[in-house]
Amino acid sequence: MKRITSKLKNRLSGAIVVVMASMMVLGYAQAQESGYQVGDKVADFSLKNIDGKTVSFSSFPDAKGYIVVFTCNTCPVAKSYEERIKELDATYKSAGYPVIAINPNDPVVQKGEDLADMQQRAKDKGFTFPYLLDPGHVVTKQFGATRTPHIFIVEKTEAGNVVQYIGAIDDNSNGEPSKFFAKNAVDELLAGSKPTTNFTKAVGCTIKWGKTI
Fold first, then answer.
1. Same domain, yes or no, for 94 and 180?
2. 70: which of 12, 57, 145, 182 fits an S-S bond (Cβ 3.0–4.6 Å)?
3. Is 37 buried (19+), middle (13-18) or exposed (0-12) by CB count in 10 A?
4. Cβ distance 107 to 209 under 8 Å?
5. For residue 9, is pLDDT > 80?
């Protein structure tokens, strides 16, 4: 009797674990809490680049879409992804998907994030893409970005610019990744299909919001 009870408890425990895991997966696959969702149309924006020029989606008239990355100077996770972000730009800019990087951090709250710091970081790391300021977190809040890095892949369509992927660049910030979420999403879009995986959890430092936010 004790053995039967023990087996039953084990089965119940296993079933509970499966259910909980399924719930976690469902939650992981669902949309983010605020901002743009996959399938939403994205309004164009105009932000100042580190070279003083204004950049928007319309600055890339021949683009097929955009790889929008919210990143910064000081977050260790964001730093670990800089070479991969450069690789995304090098691989996909010529194919019609340029990288547009936006710094969402408040430079008063987080030291090392002001314009001069951004200019120096871009120079030191050899950024090949725009690196934009977002005063007041206006565009950051529109997108619903919460981490650095946080990536949004936007497809240019006849109906407008549409979000097709939100989340992480890949599945490993510390080493060699096994799942290339962003690359796969762009490759599938260029092949004429929707991304198989269109939402993952962004992993990185929380955005440093201004004290009035």
1. yes
2. 145
3. middle
4. no
5. no
